[in-house]
Write a structure and sequence with these properties.
It is built from ten helices and 35 strands. Helices cover 18% and strands 37% of the residues. The protein has 569 residues and is of the alpha+beta class. The strands form eight sheets. The protein has an eight-stranded mixed beta sheet, with helices on both faces. The protein has a domain of 241 residues: Rossmann fold.
């Protein structure tokens, strides 16, 4: 595992990649009837598992696409599965603790969120023309109402449905909604312009996470009483950690609090001594607390904490010698939180750009970063403006400026890598929005890079808008602060394709409906027409999302072989 990349044979490279992507991912969802429920890739695909009587039991029979928080009093959980070869057209299924699975009536739409109770399943679904709120009750499907496209349902009970999204047309705020089963919907916010997410429903009380008291900076937990229409702050005695992001489970009294790309776990305000890194779910079962955890250099494990504070591993994982991690803040006109993962044997450097853009690279195991580091590369992962995890003010900085300030952040981090002597040769790589940033960077800043690797990239925002469904047109209207066609064109990589100077590896899935293939093929034609150096790999019958180990290999193997060829030149 410590062999420098360019000394590897192709067979070694393929073996390293397969071994790395087969390292399981674990994320705790909650519990059913006091049985731990979690997501895992233990058998090579994303599935729902239960820990029953000390044994790990797989509840789903093939890869799943969308999951939800399990209801602790019930013995089943619904989920959505892609049924059209990666096109993200979904059908809803139910799995129970017996390992039985049932498909139920559902429309063939893109499902972006779902929740349930003992009698019904509620979900949001997007067709080409609209996004709607649906309910399935007694096996019967009904469409309750149309909703703004960037809306997500989070909980339901016998009277109400709650959810959140960009509901009032302001792309720099988020509101929550309360709906009933007649299709009536009320959009609410504790303060105009705030970011508020409703996530938990207990009777007439809605639990919210909002930044309305500290706008743009940090979040806290609140309760909205549907009957009195009052907001109350949730006070947690003894909790003093200054978190930027926070999640509170009112049933289990557990807090996951996050700051600077790492999270901590608290039991009713008292911190649990978890390892350094990121918590990906926690739940209480009897007197014990279960949590899943990983870091950039240590794969996921599931731990159990006894009532006396003893921590033990209940679902283990491989030990991997990845390298060393450093967290820095690189200054542009903002501070750019950045993770530097260095190999013990120095190699060339890849600036890895995360997708989203409203996402982040935090200190957790990363399926796309780990193989690069193990193959001998330093990886530097900037959380450019627009990333989550650093407050809504930072997150919204790229709205109306996609490919502007965020690209400047990425270029500055590249300069930091050169100036600090981490590397003399540096390339850029990303997937989805990260693929977009890669193509834009090599076109707008062609002298900064030695190579580029773009997966699932956006090549032309205008053409993508025309090809998208309601959800992703809504996404683009938020990102560009409206249907701003001129800005979309100005910030599209195809506008700058003639400037490209470095070798490119472009990897795209045939059935991707988030970032469609057709605009990328037009970008490739321009590369060919102007005599650029490139590789183009189309993965058949695969979509945007990675559901299986084989999907990850299909995407990553061309990238690693491309890098090996560059090293041999």
């Amino acid at each position: 595992m410590q062999i420098q990349f360019h000394y590897m044979e192709y067979s070694e490279l393929i073996k390293l990649l397969e071994e790395t992507v087969r390292i399981p991912f674990y994320a705790i969802l909650g519990k059913l009837k006091n049985n731990l429920i979690y997501l895992a890739t233990s058998e090579g695909e994303i599935s729902i598992y239960a820990l029953i009587g000390g044994k790990n039991v797989k509840l789903t029979k093939s890869p799943i696409a969308i999951s939800t928080r399990p209801k602790s009093s019930l013995d089943f959980i619904p989920f959505a599965r892609d049924v059209e070869k990666g096109k993200e057209i979904h059908a809803i299924h139910i799995a129970n603790l017996k390992g039985e699975e049932f498909q139920i009536e559902s429309p063939r739409v893109r499902i972006s969120s779902l929740t349930y109770d003992d009698k019904r399943i509620v979900f949001t679904g997007s067709s080409q023309n609209e996004t709607s709120l649906y309910v399935i009750e007694n096996g019967k499907l009904s469409k309750l109402t149309t909703i703004p496209p960037f809306s997500f349902v989070t909980d339901v009970n016998e009277k109400y449905i709650i959810g959140s999204g960009v509901l009032k047309g302001n792309p720099r705020s988020q509101e929550f909604f309360i709906a009933d089963f007649s299709g009536n919907i009320e959009i609410l916010t504790p303060k105009e312009g705030s970011v508020t997410n409703a996530y938990y429903l207990m009777g007439n009380k809605v639990y919210l996470i909002s930044d309305y008291e500290t706008p743009g900076e940090s979040y806290w937990i609140y309760i909205y009483d549907i009957e009195s229409k009052k907001y109350d702050r949730v006070e947690i005695p003894g909790f003093e950690f200054k978190a930027i992001e926070i999640y509170y489970d009112p049933e289990d009294l557990l807090i996951i609090a996050k700051k600077d790309g790492e999270s901590r776990l608290f039991d009713n305000g008292k911190e649990i001594n978890t390892p350094k890194g990121t918590i990906s779910g926690a739940t209480r079962i009897g007197d014990e607390i279960y949590f899943s955890h990983s870091s950039l250099v240590s794969p996921h494990k599931i731990y159990k904490v006894s009532r006396y504070g003893k921590i033990e591993v209940v679902v283990d994982n491989r030990k991997v010698d990845v390298g060393e991690v450093e967290y820095v803040k690189v200054k542009t006109d903002v501070e750019v939180p950045t993770w530097v993962i260095k190999r013990k044997i120095p190699g060339n450097t890849i600036i890895y750009i995360h997708g989203g853009p409203w996402s982040e690279v935090d200190n957790s195991w990363n399926l796309l970063i780990a193989p690069l580091v193990l193959a001998g590369y330093n990886v530097i992962a900037p959380n450019y403006r627009g990333s989550t995890g650093y407050g809504s003010k930072f997150m919204f900085m790229n709205i109306g400026d996609a490919g502007g300030g965020d690209l400047r952040d990425v270029v500055k981090v590249r300069d930091y890598a050169i100036e600090t002597g981490i590397t003399n040769k540096v390339g850029i790589m990303g997937y989805s929005y990260g693929g977009y940033m890669t193509l834009l960077a090599v076109g707008k800043e062609p002298d900064k890079w030695d190579f580029g690797i773009a997966g699932a990239a956006v090549a032309d925002w205008v053409e993508m808008y025309d090809l998208s469904d309601s959800l992703f047109r809504g996404f683009m209207e938020i990102l560009f602060n409206g249907k701003n066609i001129d800005l979309m064109k100005e910030r599209s990589p195809i506008t700058y394709v003639r400037n490209v100077k470095v070798p490119l590896c472009i990897i795209h899935s045939q059935n991707d409906t988030r970032t469609p293939l057709n605009p990328v093929m037009r970008y490739i034609q321009e590369l060919q027409r102007t005599g650029k150096t490139y590789e183009f790999h189309v993965i058949p019958n695969l979509g945007h999302a990675i559901y299986k180990v084989s999907d990850a290999i299909d995407i990553l193997l061309p990238a690693l072989i491309f890098l090996k060829k560059l090293e041999e030149q």
